[in-house]
Amino acid sequence: MKLPFRKTLENITAYKPGKPIEDVQREYGLEKVDKLASNENPLNCSPLAIQAVREAAVNMSIYPDGNSTELKKAIADFYGVSETEIMPTSGSDEMVSMLAEAFLDPGDETIMPDITFTSYIIAARMVDSKVVIVPLKSFKLDLDGMAAAITDKTKLIWLCNPNNPTGTMFTEDELTAFMSKVPENVVVVYDEAYVEFVTSPDYPKDSYKLYQKYPNMIVMRTFSKVYGLAGLRVGYSFAGRDIMENINKIRKAFNVNRLAQAAAIAALKDQEFVKKVYAVNKEGKEYYYKCFEKMGLEYVPTQANYIFLDAGMDCNKVFVDMQKRGVIIRPIKGNFIRITIGTMEQNQRCISQLKDVLGK
Hints:
Layout: H1 21-28, E1 34-35, H2 47-56, H3 69-79, E2 86-89, H4 91-103, E3 109-113, H5 119-126, E4 130-134, H6 143-148, E5 154-160, H7 172-179, E6 187-191, H8 210-213, E7 217-222, E8 235-238, H9 241-247, H10 258-268, H11 271-295, E9 298-300, E10 306-310, H12 315-324, E11 327-328, E12 330-333, E13 336-340, H13 344-358
């Protein structure tokens, strides 16, 4: 019996998350395993968020506020914007899917880089749009190339800044120049999942306000990374009322659960925790740079909480060999791997095992 799956599913490869610690422990009989594969926060999350979850858990049988009213207010107050221009979602992935559904009809064109967050291409192909892929240039988004790819069929463009998995960024001047080439009827998705880790002074300033300057832009952020709430799935986006009102038509009811809303509100209040995470990440990436240089390995300087690295051998072999030694990294393509920056203890253990695997 042949079931009537949509034909477009033949062109979609399922998203593969970082391998769970428990799987590696069982597979190799290991007690200690470090997961440096999914860009998770090595410091967990703010104690305020944990306490907020405990308090919210007493009402688990009651549906959450479907509008995420208090969370919207907390985000609006924190950034100084209107609550009508904010939409919390179940991670950024939910917003990615809704944007594809809201703007792309079958046959419409959508533009994205060839190495970037894989949820973009899954969402675009699911609605039968034509995906136009533009190669990176020196591991960075080729904004000129992406602008040149725009046609009268283009409806949506995806920008990840800093880009995942390369960790590279584009500047405010580069973004402004790009937006000047984008027609007003083409929507630009500006994904800033890793913005809180950026150290470059050239990063677009007040980037969350870009939607106010460009009505055809939506800015996505998340509580998964610097705030450490990946396990609760809560992201948020900024856009003008027209975009938000239409996307809200297809938003699932109660999309952000009660615990996630409570944790996110509390997490925003603990900016000292954010500063600590930033400092640990900055120290970690500088440690990795020095080690990679001593090992003679090519790496891409990062503006995020991970490093894109040429391991000099097949990435999948490195992936398996590192797992056997109790460290989970992410194979990307060819010889390239991505390593999440962890605590200094995790970083040192990773380097030690990587030297062993690569014969360094």
